[in-house]
Amino acid sequence: MGEPGTKEVLNLDDLQSSGGIHTGRKHILSLLVEHRPGVLARISGLFARRGYNIESLAVGPTDDDSMARITLTVDGAAHPIDQVTKQLHKLVNVIKIRDLEPEEAVSRELALFKVSADGDTRAQIMQFAEIFRGKVVDVSKRSVTVEVTGTDAKIEAFEQMVRPFGLIEMVRTGEIAISRGRSTT
Amino acid sequence: MRAVDAIMECLKAEGVEHVFGIPGGANLPTYDALYDAGLRHVQCRHEQGAGHAAEGYAKASGKVGVALATSGPGATNLVTAIADANMDSVPTVFITGQVRTDLLGTDGFQEADVTGITLPIVKHSLMVRDPLQIPKMIHEAFHIARSGRPGPVLVDIPQDLSRADIPYEPVDSVDLPGYQPTTEGNTKQIRMAAAALSSSRRPVIYAGGGVINANASRELTELCLSDRFPVTCTLMGLGGFPAPHEQWLGMLGMHGTRAANYAMDEADLIVAIGARFDDRITGKLSEFAPRAKKIHVDIDPAEISKNVPAHIPIVGDAKNILGKLTREYRALETDRSRLDGWWERIAGWREKHPLAYEDSVGSEIKPQRMIEALYEVTGGDAIVTSDVGQHQMWCAQYFHFKGPRRWINSGGLGTMGFGLPSAMGAKVAMPDEQVVCVAGDGSMIMNVQELATCVTEKIPVKVFIMNNGFLGMVRQWQELFWDGRYSAVDMGASPDWVKLAEAFGATGMRVSDKGELKDVMNAALGTEGPVVVDVLVSKEENCYPMIPAGQAARDMVG
Fold it and tell me: CA–CA separation, B27 vs B160, rounded Å?
């Protein structure tokens, strides 16, 4: 550790505390975990026990069979994110956690909207789908089902557009994200 | 080789000499292997007892404690001990039998999802699904239990898999990519901490159970003595710094000394080492140590800034960090006289508010006197275990622990019934040491069955029951905060403890006269085998001083 006794003058008043900070924004936590039974239960159990809310959760395989990817979104206004990530780190089956900054990650979510439609409204709904680069994946006499991909903001915007037609149901996958550039998430 | 025989090999490779437990259907194979494995098995009378015994064993020796139980009720009986070990960071491995794999999930006989039940209260758990993995899992369990921030690890083994024939190769390393505890403290942070200590005029060293776990009491003492740093320990840290000493402020927190709590309140710098700013320490969080900057040393990064924001966080092993911090601090050659004013202030508190009680005029035994007498007759040199309640706090106040691993109690979970089984475990670990248990009459009955274990397994612990006929701490709270409405705290017709001890085959004694107290205690310590001494103390003595729950250090009463 080198020679001790570097005589730096330190004024106690200048010391700043860290931790327990509420960032006030949404955080996307990308977790690389061991792909084995019970890992999701440990993570959801941790959130339940510590009183953290999960806004959305997506789980899937990765390019490595022994690993799975869990993407969680957490409200940084309600919870101190540093404490959330530190608690997650304590789980032995969690290999890596990345708190993805919005500007350095690409995030996507897929949603399916089943909307009431008849002869008059079908074309309008399909037009909205087109504007949102959505796809019509099912049509019946009284409904249209549209697939939309994008950020949660885009999906929420589409929801606002089609709601007046009569939203029968909506299913969302929860966000997944990957870091921008060459580095791995 | 049968998987269970491989388990025995793994246990021996991990240095295990003693295990505590109870057999049953699902762990019959394990017990068959244990039959001639060359390990000493202590056959307990309740799995909770086995679990706490494993904890006492671990706390006294620093080695990993091991408890075995069968599936279903055997496993669920371990739950309190597992939670206790988790709260107090006790290195323990719990090996449970599970129903056969073809019965799993069918509500089979004696099936309980113990892995699921214990998920929030373990450091880690391993459910065996492939018998070939068993040796690796056992070693992983021990590695996780004892390294980093220690804690309980559960290994759940279905009965059929435990009988499987597997090729056994000794395992010499474990590979856990998701588990890499940081042990070396950051050099820059340590240097900054030394500089902060040097700038500080009102420092306090606040040490917790992490110092004991890290075997760092010598390093803690050296840091404190590298200047005239005032030092206080939490309930779990007692013995981390040798008491009594001129720099020793006593314990802090809810039943700590005024000197310790007021010093925290007025400090300009607090150095927390292996302590976690528990609510029993901080009281009202918004008014806790408002003037102090905090240096927080902990092996668990999640503890840092969890309750109280840290100004200089240092993650790592306390032993390693304290050594470096002392070296850095010494090199600064700070003027020791800068602390004169601080010590005058502390001396004032000490003089005005010494830890004291009013002794009885007649023959009545005050509970505080009982602990002082025990301290005197043991030369302050015994391993003391306790249950939870007033007697525990009086022990912490009046038994001045000179070294680490002499004080074994349930701090975080506050488990009544911990004292006797943990004393049993401590005595098994340290057969040459005097092991005494200070029990409450309310707590003693909760695991009294372990007296049978002590008798049959020849574990000569000496139990001193502080008998006031009440759940004393609850009674105290009802008196002080619930208008004296004594709801369900009178123990009524408690057993005749002398006869009960004798029924178990132990020796029973009783004392109610202050003048005979030490003689009876000496007689008990001099008697072979387990002894239970029923010490009849004042019925309604309160434990003071006290910070009422949720209030600040300045609000201490009594």
Answer: 10
Q: Are residues A114 and A157 in the same domain?
A: yes
ipTM of the complex: 0.90
Angle between helices A81-89 and A39-50 (to 10 degrees): 140
CATH at B59: 3.40.50.970
Kindly give, in sequence order, each residue whose CB lies less than 8 Å from that of residue B275, ignoring residues fewer than 6 positions away: B206, B207, B208, B209, B210, B234, B236, B237, B281, B298
> What pTM did the predictor assign?
0.95
In this complex, the residue of A5, A19, A37 whose CB is nearest that of residue B305 is A19
Q: How many CB pairs under 8 A join A and B?
A: 98
B353 shares contact with chain A (CB less than 8 Å): no
Cα(B157)–Cα(B26) distance, integer angstroms? 9
B545 within a domain of the structure (yes/no): no
Residues of chain A in contact with residue B187, where contact means CB-CB under 8 angstroms, are 1-2
Contact criterion met (CB < 8 Å) for B268 and A12: yes
Asked if residue B371 and residue B330 are part of one domain, the reply reads no
Which among A7, A11, A83 has CB closest to B306?
A83
Whether B134 is in a domain gets the answer yes
Average pLDDT per consecutive 10 residues, chain B (558 residues; last block may be shorter): 97 98 98 97 98 98 98 98 98 98 96 97 97 97 98 98 95 92 95 97 98 98 98 98 96 97 98 97 94 98 95 97 98 96 98 96 97 98 97 98 98 98 98 98 98 98 98 97 96 95 98 98 98 98 94 92
Q: A72 forms bridges with which residues in the sheet?
A: A29, A57
Asked whether residue A71 falls in the same domain as residue A110, the answer is no
- The verdict on residue B425 lying in a domain is yes
Q: Is B379 on the interface with A (CB under 8 A)?
A: no
